[in-house]
């Protein structure tokens, strides 16, 4: 399975600094890891929190993946999942400790969403309201579940998804990396079922911050992905168009998106 990927982080139209961070990399075994973080706690604090979280998370996953020569030799699902969770715990500890050392960074934190595409499986962890979607020729599906106040109200039936999208409280998150000593990430395992006999059968994994999803609906995201040229590596153009759409629709926050094409 050939994997292509691209990522862009944009300051948006109204912010004076970019507090988002991301990293996407391909291992020699063929697996691809992507992580996206949306920092908070003031301009400098948010930047530091998101960068620390990205670096510490990737460092943890590297320890498992770098020695791997081929995906067929990959560790079992439990070990991979444990590694991703450990990456979140390590990121949380590092951000929390940094906030405790420097009073100006007190309370800083970050969202985190990460996916590891390994063979026919996608392992995903998240904390906060940055999201992962999977899109194919039929539909787009949000795999992660937001840890936010409005999502909680939707879950208990006190708010509709449409009301949540326009709520003035939509930026309040209920979990974050680094704000507390302990963190509770969610983890997901998605099996990719692809018909290799169909050349045009593309599957996409999208990771993004709420700077994108606050301004571009999942329907619009899906249309942008599916209307693109289906041949070769088209991920950079798709990501650029998604960022442009968010900016055209207001660009009220930093915008980060990473797209992996399977």
Description of the molecule:
It is built from seven helices and eleven strands. The chain has one domain: Phosphatase 2c, domain 1. The mean pLDDT is 94. The longest helix is centred in the middle third of the chain and has 25 residues, at 77-101. The chain has 262 residues and is α+β, with helices and mostly antiparallel strands. The strands form two sheets. Strands 2, 3, 4, 5, 6 and 9 form a six-stranded antiparallel β-sheet that branches. Strands 1-11-10-7-8 form a five-stranded antiparallel β-sheet. The chain has helices spanning 43-65, 77-101, 149-155, 161-166, 210-213, 218-226, 235-248, and strands at residues 4-10, 20-26, 32-40, 109-110, 112-118, 121-127, 131-135, 140-142, 186-191, 204-208, 255-261. The termini are close together. Helix 1 (43-65) packs antiparallel against helix 2 (77-101). It is globular, with a radius of gyration of 18 Å.
């Amino acid at each position: 399975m050939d994997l292509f990927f691209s990522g862009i982080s944009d300051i948006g139209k109204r912010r004076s600094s970019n507090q988002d961070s991301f990293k996407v990399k391909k291992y020699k075994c063929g697996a691809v890891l992507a992580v996206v973080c949306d920092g908070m706690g003031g301009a400098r604090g948010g930047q530091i929190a998101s960068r620390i979280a990205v670096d510490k998370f990737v460092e943890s996953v590297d320890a498992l993946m770098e020695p791997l020569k081929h995906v067929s030799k990959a560790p079992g699902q439990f070990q991979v999942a444990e590694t991703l969770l450990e990456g979140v715990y390590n990121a949380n500890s590092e951000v929390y400790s940094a906030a405790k050392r420097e009073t100006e960074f007190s309370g800083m934190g970050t969202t985190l969403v990460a996916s590891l595409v390994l063979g026919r499986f996608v392992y995903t962890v998240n904390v906060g309201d940055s999201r992962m979607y999977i899109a194919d020729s039929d539909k787009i599906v949000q795999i992660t579940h937001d840890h936010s106040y409005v999502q909680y109200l939707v879950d208990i039936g006190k708010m509709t998804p449409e009301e949540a999208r326009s709520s003035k409280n939509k930026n309040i998150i209920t979990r974050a990396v680094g704000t507390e000593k302990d963190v509770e990430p969610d983890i997901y395992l998605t099996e990719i079922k692809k018909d290799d006999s169909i050349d045009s059968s593309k599957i996409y994994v999208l990771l993004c911050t709420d700077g994108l999803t606050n301004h571009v609906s999942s329907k619009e995201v899906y249309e942008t992905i599916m209307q693109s040229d289906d041949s070769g590596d088209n991920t950079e153009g798709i990501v650029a168009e998604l960022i442009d759409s968010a900016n055209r629709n207001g660009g009220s926050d930093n915008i980060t998106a990473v797209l992996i094409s399977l």
